[in-house]
User: Fold these one by one.
Assistant:
Number 1:
Amino acid sequence: MCATALGLVYPNLLRILVDNIIMDGKFELVPKLSLFIVGVIALKSLLQYIHGFVGARVGNRLVLRLRNTCYEKLQMLPANYYDKVKTGDLVSRMTSDLEAIRNFIGFDFAQFINMGLTIVFGSLLMLWIDWRLTLLTLLLCPLLIFMTFRFEGHIHPAYRGIRQSMGRLSATVQENIAGIRTVKSFAREDHEVDKFAVHNETYRQAQVEASDVLARYYPVIELLANLCPVLLLLFGGLQVIHGSLSLGEWVQMSTLTWLIVSPMWWIGFHINKYTQAKASGERVIELLDHQTSYRRSNCTLDKPTGIPIQGDVSFEQVSFAYGDDTSAYALSEFTLQSASGSVIGIIGRTGSGKSTVMHLLTQAYEAAAGKIQIDGVEFDRWDPEILKEAIVPVFQETFLFSASIRDNISYGVDEVTDEQIMEAAVMAQAHEFIERLPKGYDTVIGERGLGLSGGQKQRIAIARALIRNPRILLLDDATSAVDVETEAKILTALKEYMKGRTTFIIAHRISSVWHADEIIVLDKGKIVQRGQHEQLAAAQGLYRDIYEVQSSGLMS
Ligand SMILES: Nc1ncnc2c1ncn2[C@@H]1O[C@H](COP(=O)(O)OP(=O)(O)OP(=O)(O)O)[C@@H](O)[C@H]1O
């Protein structure tokens, strides 16, 4: 604001220089006043430097906090959010969108204030000198402002298009890198290149569209802006000739006109920046506004906290659909009672709803109907953190971090000794192969566990779950990539370890579940059979079909 005020003092000094010094022949004062003008300009520059310095800091700090908040939000969002979004798009929101916001807050926002003040106070000053001449000079300004707002109306959708296509482009690159092995093994490199080229072309078109808008509006805005000083030259010049305006006043008005019109002209550029930041802001806000887990926001106050979970699990007529279509239940009227200490096996065809049971227990999704209870207390009434501590899953798709094996196993546990890590690895039958690696537990594995076999990754994932000392352990096809012999060893070790706790084993192989206290057979989301292995193997039904196929060696 001070810099802007000094900017308005300078034309006044020019008027004094012309009218009171040069016209009056007091040439000895010229160097002094010139020096004073230089001083004013230097002070203005200093203030502008401070503004730039502070603005950059404000922008950076704000975006630092915004980025951290977005990242926190990503950790809190429910699992179904990630069913719909693309990773690359989220990455683009966290990087280039936040960058656009930083640029606007750090630089353009202050320019906005500067321009606004210059226009308002500069115009008032001009009106005070000669209001008629001012109105004539600024005759075209409403048109100029109208054009800049029209420009904003066209450029905003264009910039939104750029941001969206950038998000899609990033998503394509991210997906391609994540699935590069599949791409190569299916010899789909050319197809992928073509797919990328299409998105790249869309991005180019979005950029061209924005450039077209810029190209159409800038010359018109520039022309209108330049006509103002021409009008002043014409009408003001006539007044100077007729003696109704001093030359100094004309110089002052001329400088003020430029001071006012330039920001109006640049208003287009700053609006342009503003719209970019607005488009980015909308995308960031959409992420921040997304509702986090229902359970977290609706936790009842009488939830049991601090009570250790024993491990009794009960499902009563539980139904669940992934989408809004409740006729397509992934799990329908699912009922189960398991006392702590029991092993529950869940088997069934692909897509029959087995993993859905685990998704409900891990709070990834919420049941649409029915009741889930842990130790006789309704799921909703438990503190989610306590549930997370007690119910530990091993997912079907093993995800390991690009860190050492030690760090991967101890992930999620604060204080852990080497002995505990080793103990968990021994139970998961991972210790032997880890020891054989040149750096043992310090071996750093590649991104998503690259560098290890599928079975090795699964065993590390089991060790990672066991170290958390779960009360309820959920194994979702967790030994599918492990050979039958190793699987048997893992299950024997688990039997001992999980005494007094509950284990859910979701599997395709009979060998994974035959020893369970109760085996549940699912088909199309419904329980079609339940009982123990001997019982089920003897009865007609899906279980026996699976058993016969597997024991005859057609499937293993
Ligand atoms: N995130 C999801 N969004 C929409 N539908 C889903 C989602 N996950 C699973 N489904 C659908 O729900 C049904 C049950 O899926 P679920 O993963 O529970 O089966 P599953 O028995 O574990 O299968 P598999 O043995 O292949 O792992 C399937 O029809 C599946 O297509």
Number 2:
Amino acid sequence: MVKICCIGAGYVGGPTMAVIALKCPSFEVVVVDISVSRIAAWNSDQLPIYEPGLDEVVKQCRGKNLFFSTDIEKQVSEADIIFVSVNTPTKTQGLGAGKAADLTYWESAARMIADVSKSNKIVVEKSTVPVKTAEAIEKILTHNGRGIKYQILSNPEFLAEGTAIQDLFHPDRVLIGGRETPDGQKAIQSLKDVYAHWVPEDRIISTNLWSAELSKLAANAFLAQRISSVNAMSALCEATGADVSQVSHAVGKDTRIGPKFLNASVGFGGSCFQKDILNLVYICECNGLPEVANYWKQVIKINDYQKKRFVNRLVSSMFNTVSGKKISILGFAFKKDTGDTRETPAIDVCKGLLGDKAHLCIYDPQVTEDQIRRDLSMNKFDLDHPVHLQPMSPSSVKQVSVVWDAYEAAKDAHGVCILTEWDEFKTLDYQRIFDNMQKPAFVFDGRNIVNVDKLREIGFIVYSIGKPLDPWLKDMPAVA
Ligand SMILES: NC(=O)C1=CN([C@@H]2O[C@H](COP(=O)(O)OP(=O)(O)OC[C@H]3O[C@@H](n4cnc5c(N)ncnc54)[C@H](O)[C@@H]3O)[C@@H](O)[C@H]2O)C=CC1
Ligand SMILES: O=C(O)[C@H]1O[C@H](OP(=O)(O)OP(=O)(O)OC[C@H]2O[C@@H](n3ccc(=O)[nH]c3=O)[C@H](O)[C@@H]2O)[C@H](O)[C@@H](O)[C@@H]1O
């Protein structure tokens, strides 16, 4: 029986291994983690992450051929294939701080593998890592090798949160990079055999190690670039009277461009786009390519501009001050159908409004009050480290309340701010919300999900990213 062990039971390790276990019933799959609470949650009815369809997959396999454990060393020593899916956040200190990937967790996992292994292993990079990481890992493993042979493969993950299970069931492609030696090719074939249980052969691509590592960074950079491109257009739409949804539709009809990933927003979030682009920028700089580095940096600059622009629009349209005003924040997760808040644009928008002394009343169907308070009090980049290494009791943020109902959040508010595109926000009773708000009542839609005309009929002053401006807003300075 093939034994698979995955180090890191997070957003990638958990769902990916659950799907492998489901599709490969003859394999034993064990997911291990240093976080005791995370493993306990995986073994309970309340899984540690919210992901549509995940519960069903886990329920079908857990206890049969899918296990979650903190007995890391035992499970690693017994495995044939070891996936490493640990955090690779942006470095906060030292060389490359604010840009380079922090490989502390990866290195400690590799050293542990080297320490406990007694048989040959295939070690799979599942985390997103800088190009050439496999070379460093190889050195760590073979240094302490005691004659044990390791083959390192790069098998980056392309799932998106909120659709992880569907993405894993029907991936556009599975990418496997390995050494171009007979042993390297044999290892690639072993991993291909795992995915071949459910992924069509023509969707399993193999490359050399460095191409696979770089393709992951490139894919995320291209995706983020599309969002920054449409967000840059949204600013121009507001200045000219064009409508960004119409522009996106027209542009996306070109089959060379395609319709996906062209929704203007308050900015992209999530744990990966920013960190992976910063990582790419750092690699370019280290390779003496400042022009290439600057090109990609611009994607992040536009994203920061978009978030700042949104806050400035909001404040300037409310008579240039939100001091003491209640602003209702609908949605805190970085996108719908996830409870993940890493790098969510909501953090920057809320911090911007708090800087102008607003009172915030926040509602998100999947994010806890504790998480919101942590996010608003912690430093940027600290949030993507393992949970048990984060401060236990973050300092409490004044001027913020968290409620469990959108109507409660909007009651007596001066403005409503939509920051996540949760479906339930599309069907709220906006008349009821309007009736219970201070007047003039404002809606700032950072996701373009409300019916602007209908809301204006009710009496709201509406700002929707990249849409023709409300007459009220036309006279306000659109500074950024
Ligand atoms: N979140 C996503 O949608 C995607 C993430 N990725 C990449 O996958 C990697 C993991 O990301 P997530 O799953 O989101 O992170 P996560 O933070 O949800 O999970 C990582 C887990 O690794 C554990 N861990 C850290 N060091 C460990 C060690 N030495 N031994 C055992 N466990 C350890 C942590 O406790 C944590 O539970 C990152 O490199 C990320 O860039 C790639 C594609 C999608
Ligand atoms: O490496 C990763 O972590 C993953 O990053 C993204 O997945 P994810 O961040 O989970 O979610 P996306 O759907 O890509 O959304 C990212 C952000 O962009 C925003 N977005 C997305 C699409 C769009 O048109 N407009 C837009 O503003 C979303 O609201 C969200 O804040 C990629 O889509 C995955 O392929 C990749 O595996």
